[in-house]
């Protein structure tokens, strides 16, 4: 690890005033320190944000929840209001990492964790995400874990978070604050597709701090399910994951959310396909049709063609499990 | 530890409670808790397996919660209450989880054991595991390269109720931690 300066601000405005291109905020440290040990992140200054008053989960006036950026992943997954009203989010968080890491990892940090592409992690090889313009060895290299949707010539990395897949399905809103003031970002717009600038994972500016995540009231309590497919039973990143949520009237679908993890540079949603399910009855046929439609533009690489079928089947399974109550 | 490798980068003074004792330490910002425990404080019970959060060998308890010491900066532990494997026993009386690991012969080489035990104590504090399947899932952050999982599971399963009772007694102030 390179040497760096360390400071621990006590309020948000102090933290923001310290921020700059050569500095990084540190929360749980579970991703940033890992990258610093690998010499991939080389901040000159760490701004410890664990002392900021961003640790509450509270109800909003509209009946949703406002989750402070420093709430740990474990506390969030096991928060009574989250367990009762947003079981999809609890399930997704608990499917990720390990109990130790979830105790450390923060809500804000989880959104900003970087890809697990092995080439990104190997500073001896080129990588457009790490060194813009240097090339992408994954495209023609080992690409079993890489993207099948929304990738570009420059980058085929995926976003590794489980929590974010549930947040995408739930239409969460990200609250941020920077030197220019406060703003909110719809979850669907928060992360980017790689296009020609894969070094940028999201829309956040260098001086901007995530302060909170807001959940709208609709938590799909009765019918939701998070399905994660991975190489071992636990403690592994998703090859494919699906957050499925349904609002049913009898067996007619009144509302539906489908978000995919492990397949793209951001949690993947296709609102046109969701729309096509509304008004339809719950049926395997309809779920299969939706699954095929979501993957219609999939562009698998040499080693990850299996993800297309896997994703389709996972979508059908997750929707079916959600329809029957999500307990699977 | 008053000299710094590079004068431009300051050491930081931190105060914490470690295994029940107050400690004042000077640490460099980039030192992990794991390295400070092992190199600076000679508490070598906590092990370094992967140094990347992947194996759980470095698990310690921070304010009663299990964390990976390899991904924790020591400088960020100012004010924390830490318990390592060296601090679990009460004098010569082993913690019930330690006793259970011995009873069930829950190790082969023993390298993962301190992390397994601290993790299992953290598991008891959380109060979330009732069944063997839940224990397995919630102990998945601790790998054992010898594959002693069957006996580890048996040890954790047996000691969990007693460890949980001890945890709630401590949090109610009934037992000196
Ligand atoms: C072995 C291992 C396995 C894992 N498995 C999974 C898994 O299966 N699924 C999964 O989803 N995740 C997994 N993770 C990733 C883990 O969830 C993330 O590392 C964690 O959520 C990051 O949160 P943090 O608070 O530790 O972030 P940090 O490491 O502290 O920060 C990460 C980034 O976010 C920035 N940042 C943090 N907070 C803020 C804020 N409030 N505002 C602005 N910037 C901020 C930091 O500057 C840094 O760039 C795994 C990690 C490890 C090490
Ligand atoms: S040494 Fe910390 S998790 Fe392996
Ligand atoms: S006993 Fe050898 S690693 Fe677990």
TrEMBL record, chain A:
InterPro entries: CO_DH_flav_C, CO_DH_flav_C_dom_sf, Diverse_Substr_Oxidored, FAD-bd_PCMH, FAD-bd_PCMH-like_sf, FAD-bd_PCMH_sub1, FAD-bd_PCMH_sub2, Mopterin_DH_FAD-bd. Gene3D superfamilies: 3.30.465.10, CO dehydrogenase flavoprotein, C-terminal domain (3.30.390.50), Uridine Diphospho-n-acetylenolpyruvylglucosamine Reductase, domain 2 (3.30.43.10). Keywords: FAD, Flavoprotein. It comes from the Bacteria. The keyword Electron transport does not apply. This is Xanthine dehydrogenase YagS FAD-binding subunit. Residues 1-220 form the FAD-binding PCMH-type domain. GO terms for molecular function: FAD binding; oxidoreductase activity. It comes from Pseudomonas abietaniphila.
TrEMBL record, chain B:
One of its GO terms (molecular function) is 2 iron, 2 sulfur cluster binding. Pfam families: Fer2, Fer2_2. It comes from the Bacteria. InterPro entries: 2Fe-2S-bd, 2Fe-2S-bd_dom_sf, 2Fe-2S_ferredoxin-like_sf, 2Fe-2S_ferredoxin-type, 2Fe2S_fd_BS, Aldehyde_Oxdr_Iron-Sulfur, Beta-grasp_dom_sf. Residues 12-88 form the 2Fe-2S ferredoxin-type domain. CDD domains: fer2. Keywords: 2Fe-2S, Iron, Iron-sulfur, Metal-binding, Oxidoreductase. This is Xanthine dehydrogenase YagT iron-sulfur-binding subunit. The lineage of its organism: Bacteria, Pseudomonadati, Pseudomonadota, Gammaproteobacteria, Pseudomonadales.
């Amino acid at each position: 690890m390179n040497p760096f300066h360390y400071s621990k601000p006590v309020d948000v405005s102090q933290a923001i005033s310290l921020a700059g291109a050569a500095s990084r905020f540190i929360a749980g440290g579970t991703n940033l320190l890992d990258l610093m040990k690998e010499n991939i992140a080389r901040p000159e200054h760490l701004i410890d944000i664990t002392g900021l008053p961003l640790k509450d989960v509270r109800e909003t006036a509209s009946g949703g929840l406002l989750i402070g950026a420093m709430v740990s992943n474990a506390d969030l997954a096991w928060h009574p209001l989250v367990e009762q009203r947003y079981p999809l989010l609890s399930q997704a968080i608990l499917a990720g990492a390990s109990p130790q890491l979830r105790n450390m990892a923060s809500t804000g940090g989880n959104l900003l964790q970087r890809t697990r592409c092995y080439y990104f992690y190997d500073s001896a090889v080129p990588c457009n995400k790490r060194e813009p313009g240097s090339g992408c060895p994954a495209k023609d290299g080992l690409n079993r874990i890489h993207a099948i949707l929304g990738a570009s010539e420059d980058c085929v990395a995926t976003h590794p978070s489980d929590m974010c897949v549930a947040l995408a399905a739930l239409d969460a809103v990200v609250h941020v604050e920077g030197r220019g003031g406060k703003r909110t970002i719809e979850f669907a717009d928060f992360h980017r597709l790689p296009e020609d600038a894969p070094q940028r994972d999201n829309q956040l500016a260098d001086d901007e701090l995530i302060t909170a995540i807001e959940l709208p009231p609709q938590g799909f309590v009765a019918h939701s399910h998070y399905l994660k497919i991975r190489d071992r039973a636990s403690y592994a990143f998703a090859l494919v994951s699906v957050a499925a949520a349904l609002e049913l009237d009898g067996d007619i679908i009144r509302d539906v959310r489908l978000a995919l993890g492990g397949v793209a540079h951001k949690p993947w949603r296709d609102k046109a396909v969701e729309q096509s399910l509304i008004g339809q009855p719950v049926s395997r046929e309809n779920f299969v049709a939706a699954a095929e439609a979501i993957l219609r533009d999939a562009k698998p690489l040499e080693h990850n063609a299996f993800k297309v079928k896997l994703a389709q089947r996972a979508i059908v399974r997750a929707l079916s499990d959600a329809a029957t109550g999500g307990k699977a | 530890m008053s000299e710094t490798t590079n004068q431009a980068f300051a050491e930081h003074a931190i105060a914490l409670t470690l295994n029940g004792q107050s400690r004042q330490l000077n640490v460099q910002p980039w030192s992990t808790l794991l390295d400070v425990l092992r190199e600076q404080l000679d508490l070598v019970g906590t092990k370094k397996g992967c140094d990347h959060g992947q194996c759980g060998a470095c698990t310690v308890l921070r304010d009663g919660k299990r964390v990976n010491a390899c991904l924790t900066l020591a400088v960020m532990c100012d004010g924390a209450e830490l318990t390592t494997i060296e601090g679990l026993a009460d004098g010569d009386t082993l913690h019930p989880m330690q006793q259970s690991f011995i009873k069930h012969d829950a190790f082969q080489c023993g390298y993962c054991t301190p992390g397994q035990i601290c993790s299992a104590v953290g598991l008891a504090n959380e109060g979330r595991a009732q069944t063997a399947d839940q224990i397995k899932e919630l102990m998945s952050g601790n790998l054992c390269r010898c594959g002693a999982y069957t006996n580890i599971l048996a040890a954790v399963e047996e000691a969990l109720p007693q460890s949980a009772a001890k945890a709630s007694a401590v949090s109610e102030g009934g037992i000196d931690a």
